[in-house]
Design brief:
209 residues, alpha+beta, Helix Hairpins
């Protein structure tokens, strides 16, 4: 935290980026408290300049952002939240706040590119990112905090996420988001246990190939 350069108003610009697709979602601001809460909770917190108050993304809308990692730019005066979004980032309902060009053309109104990525490719990409976090152990990484919590706590977390999937399935609400959370935490558990997704893929192939 001491490395972050806040401006004269005590704020630092924050870019939120989808860790799975690479899409830039939004530009917001954070004060020291917002950054600290983001690091401690694993959920994106920002500071509203118009309302002069701290806010957690999705506190009202439910469109939260789970923070996988927080990165600092080369001048230490801007942050990058690598997030797993649950719902659209923009208050307009768009996936990203950057859905209009300067010429006024609409872009990215639908979640462009996401559906074009095969599921297996997405899982492999996410598993690779998790493995990189495990090797480098960057400060402020939610993935690292999960790995450091140990197999017992991590297994418990996977169980909690599985329960959330069950609840979502029975209520027909947020099933895809909860399923994505479960897959992410399961991949972290596999990485912590030294079991690669390739091994799981082989078992599936042997059973159903």
């Amino acid at each position: 935290m001491d490395r972050v350069v806040f401006d004269e108003n005590g704020l630092v610009p924050v870019i939120a980026q989808d860790v799975a697709t690479g899409d830039v979602l939004t530009l917001a601001y954070a004060n020291r408290e917002a950054v600290e809460k983001t690091l401690s909770s694993g959920e994106a917190h920002y500071y509203s300049r118009s309302r002069s108050e701290l806010w957690r993304k999705g506190a009202t809308s439910g469109n939260t952002q789970r923070v996988v990692e927080v990165r600092l730019d080369c001048d230490a005066d801007a942050l990058l939240y690598m997030v797993e979004p649950r719902g659209p980032a923009c208050h307009t309902g768009h996936k990203s706040c950057f859905f209009t060009t300067l010429a006024g053309d609409g872009v990215g109104i639908a979640p462009a590119g996401y559906q074009e990525v095969p599921f297996g490719t997405m899982v492999e990409r996410l598993a690779g990112t998790i493995a990189q976090r495990h090797r480098e152990m960057p400060e402020g990484s939610y993935t690292v905090s999960l790995i450091q919590s140990g197999p017992e706590r991590l297994s418990q977390k996977v169980g909690e996420e599985a329960v959330e999937v069950i609840v979502a399935a029975l209520s027909d609400e947020r099933l895809t988001e909860e399923a994505a959370d479960l897959i992410y935490h399961l991949l972290v558990l596999l990485e912590e246990r030294g079991v690669g997704v390739e091994g799981v893929a082989k078992v599936l192939h042997d059973r159903h190939g």
